[in-house]
Amino acid sequence: MKYRLFNPLTILTIMAISCNQAEQNKATTGNDAAATASSAPAAPVMGSFSYDLQFLRQHDSVVVLKNDSGRAQVIVSPKYQAKVFTSTAEGDSGMSFGWVNYKAFSGPVDPHMNGYGGENRLWLGPEGGKFSLFFKPGAQQVFANWKTPAAVDTESWDVTDKTEKSISMKKAMHLENYKGTKLDLLVERRVGILGDGDVEKGTGMSLPERVKVVAYTTDNRITNTGTTEWNDRSGTPCIWILDMFRPGDETVIVVPFKKTDSAGFKRVVTSDYFGSIPADRLKHTDERLFFKADGKSRGKLGVSPSHAPMALGSYDAKNKVLTVIIYEVDGAAKYLSQRWNTTDPPFKGDAVNVYNDGPLESGTQMGPFYELESVSPAAFLKPGGSLSHRQAVYHFTGDGKGLDMIALHLLGVSLSEIKKAF
């Protein structure tokens, strides 16, 4: 076999060409990598809707409802007790309005309550009192004995219908109240996102320009599926809707109530659920009260059904978000007492409540978050009978003048009055 020999000059030329090609390949590869990196989507920012959606999808096959524009979106979870976890008015990159307790999704099940969060969740009341659903018969009503029923705490619900704009779910429950009465019931819940026309109809006003909104309704119903009548001797449940939101140093809850003289304020408002609320955190006029929603001090208050409003809300001045919930109230009906004692009259409770989270005496804290709450009347039902409770949630954001118009119309107070409260 003959071999062809290359002279030194030829070898050097080939080596130079090879090195030059290697450098070009390296540069090209580097440019491609840079281009790929620059075109890759940025990681979702905490506080955004996309961040919460990505997180929740790691734990659940959640359902996302969207309005016609696609900007307004609502996350619903049949797995996590049919709750609305959060919503946004401005698409994936928009602010996530609900509070999600990320740490609750890992670790052991909490024996008292698994606070996954959620800006609209269904519980059943009463929490305390002679007919409590959270304490075993005869147990002292203290935190060590407090346990949220699994059906509204950890168990999943069944989907009965689903479209692009609504989802319906149900859950059969078997509970026992503090008196020892066995309660068999079916709970049904429908969540539906609203279009702009529905928002205008629900609020009774045209949506101002440069204001964005996400809104939805929850229709909730309980049916007595047992053989025992629910009455003032056996005890009755009620529908309890709790909405958990992100707190802030510039966030204030506004609760209108029917006018009364200042001497009667304490008969209208219960403000000592967890001890008295300091005066620098709760202020009121003869027609509305203002409550700090900063998640720094634990406090809860409620308004009696004869004085309760049909709407209450909050304003986050830092992020320019006005939140309003509208619900049903029957001023002549009996509402269950939720307080942790057996001495209060069981059917003289509040129709609406608001709560600001804060550190417990032990120094621990679930949140921080704050809540806007509404409840149904006591469900005095014969076997086969049903009771319903409807609530709508509205988040408005954008132009200050437009938000001011909405606050005046729905809450009877201007944004400047809200901001001056504290």
CATH topology of the largest domain: Beta-galactosidase, Chain A, domain 5
- Which residue ranges are poorly predicted, with pLDDT under 50 across at least 5 consecutive positions? 1-19, 33-37
Structural class: alpha+beta
| Proportion of strand residues | 25-35%
Helix run count: 6
Number of strands: 19
Strands of the widest sheet, in order across it, are 5-6-7-8-19-16-15-10-13-12
CATH architecture of the largest domain: Distorted Sandwich
How would you describe the shape?
globular
Tally of separate domains: 2
> Mind telling me the C-alpha Rg?
28 Å
Relative helix content: 10-25%
Order of helices and strands: HHEEEEEEEHEEEHEEEEEEEEEHH
What does the largest sheet look like?
10 strands, antiparallel
N-to-C terminal Cα separation, in Å? 99 Å
Average pLDDT confidence is 90
User: CATH first level of the largest domain: which class?
Assistant: Mainly Beta
